[in-house]
Every structure is written in C-alpha cells, then in structure tokens.
Write a structure and sequence with these properties.
Blueprint lengths: L5 E4 L3 H9 L4 E4 L4 H10 L3 E4 L13 E3 L5 H7 L23 E3 L10 H6 L3 E3 L6 E3 L2 H20 L1
Parallel strand pairs: 1-2, 1-3, 3-4
Antiparallel strand pairs: 5-6, 6-7
Helix pairs in contact: 1-3
C-alpha cells in the first residue's frame, strides 16, 4: 500500500514536522499562488491540507482535507484515518526540510556532535540536504511516547 504524501499550507508547519517524524512526505508551501499549490498537489498526488475552508473548494480529483484545530497534536488526530504508526518509518525524514535521512558514522561527524552525545549514543542520522544531525536523545523518547498515546487513544475510541 502506498503511503499518502501531503502538501500543507505554511500555517501548518508544526503538523508537517509531526508527519515527518512519522515518516510521511510532508511538503510545506510558503508564499506562492494558490493555483501553483493545487497544480503541485495534483501532479505529485499529494493530499492538500489547509485550515482555510475557502481553499477546500477544489477541482475534482484533488485530494484534500480541512484542518480545523489550531493545535498541532489535535491536527494530527484529525488525520489519523489516513495515518499508520509504523515503527520502521519513525524518524526517517528530516523534520526541517522533509528529506530522507542517512545513517552516519559518528566518527565522521565529531565536529558536529557534542562530546557527551558521541559517548552516550551509537546511532546517528544526517540530512544530506540541510546538514542537520539527529540522535535518539530525550526528545526522541518523548515524541515516540506522544505518538503512541495519540494512536492508542484513536484505537480505543474506534
């Protein structure tokens, strides 16, 4: 089954980061004409997400969803029917720029990883596009717990 890909308005940046944490391709479009956004959503078969009800009047064939909440975690809950919590996909995309991450040897990145982190962690990933280095610190466990809670709550209410 093909995973959905998303195209989000720029006021949904926090939601985009959480979709990326889940491993979903989530592009944020900033300050470009609406017609360009719709063209890209159609061409790339992306689901268009917006908080603006006026933007939901789209041509046939453009997948879309109105996001009602202004809280990013509630927004994520609105998308649960489209999402799957797949452990193998978690933390595989850069939360900044949406690119896939690459596993790296920490010895090659000593100048970019704090000494304490290099000593206490073994697994590091790198975004080759923006240069951000990731490791499984305390934020990792917190984000994973948040996602597990969101998906478990959904299963309990279904």
């Amino acid at each position: 089954m093909r995973r959905p890909r998303f195209l989000l308005r720029d006021n949904l940046g926090r939601l985009a980061r959480w979709l990326r944490i889940l491993g979903y391709d989530a592009v944020v479009m900033k300050a470009i004409p609406f017609s360009t956004i719709i063209s890209r959503a159609t061409k790339e078969r992306r689901i268009f997400l917006s908080r603006c009800a006026k933007e939901m009047k789209l041509p046939a064939g453009v997948a879309h969803q109105l996001i009602r909440s202004d809280n990013h975690l509630k927004q994520l809950r609105e998308l649960l029917p489209l999402l799957v919590l797949d452990e193998s996909m978690l933390f595989t995309r850069c939360i900044r720029c949406n690119r896939l991450l690459t596993t790296i040897d920490p010895a090659r990145m000593q100048d970019r990883i704090p000494a304490y982190v290099a000593q206490t962690h073994k697994h590091f990933t790198l975004c080759r596009h923006c240069g951000k280095v990731y490791w499984q610190g305390t934020h990792y466990a917190d984000m994973k717990r948040t996602l597990t809670d969101i998906f478990q709550t959904n299963e309990e209410t279904s």
